[in-house]
Amino acid sequence: MDAIYSLRHVIAPALGAATILVALFALGIAPTVAIVIGAVVWAGAALMLVPRRRFQGLLKAEGLGYDADLARRELEAAAGRVRTLRRLADRIDRPALSGSLGRIARSAESILRDLERTPRDFRRMRKPLTHYLAHVETIAERYAYMAAAGPVDPATAQRIEHTLADLERVFEEYNRRAIEDEAFDLDSRILLLEQEIKAEGVSGPGSPDPPGPWQRR
Length: 217
What we know:
Elements: H1 2-6, H2 8-26, H3 31-48, H4 68-91, H5 95-117, H6 122-149, H7 154-175, H8 187-202
């Protein structure tokens, strides 16, 4: 569908021209009328093929208790993180980690689809998508960078697995709508884990995040 949208400046004029030709030669319609019909078809096709951005419903939703345009941008960023997690899940060769990443990505995408249908749930779903998902992405990218540089310390890898497993449960519960505004005691563990990964040489104080093909542009 995205490819069709990108070709709208070709497809719409082609449909308009084809309509004019059919009207003139197949239906015998007068040239002026045929041109008008072709122009209408051209304009209609161009409007239909305007790219649809996700989460546009947020801009019309009422009762969000949050800036709708900012909410849409946050959800678009979350969708980008989901794509990153899927790429990382395919690249990481540790089954427990790649499996957790794949399942978190699927749960997050399911939440995003629900929000497209029911924007009013944004406040309840915001934390896993904007807070926890960002941490999952950071942890996964740094693990992938460590693994590319050499063997990862087994104890560190196991702690990452346990934390991702807990985060996976969080996303599953949010996805089942079993949680309203409850807080999870994961923030401190996530912070400690990220600090530990940095201390192992993945990135020094003040240094940029490790480069790699997994990072979003």
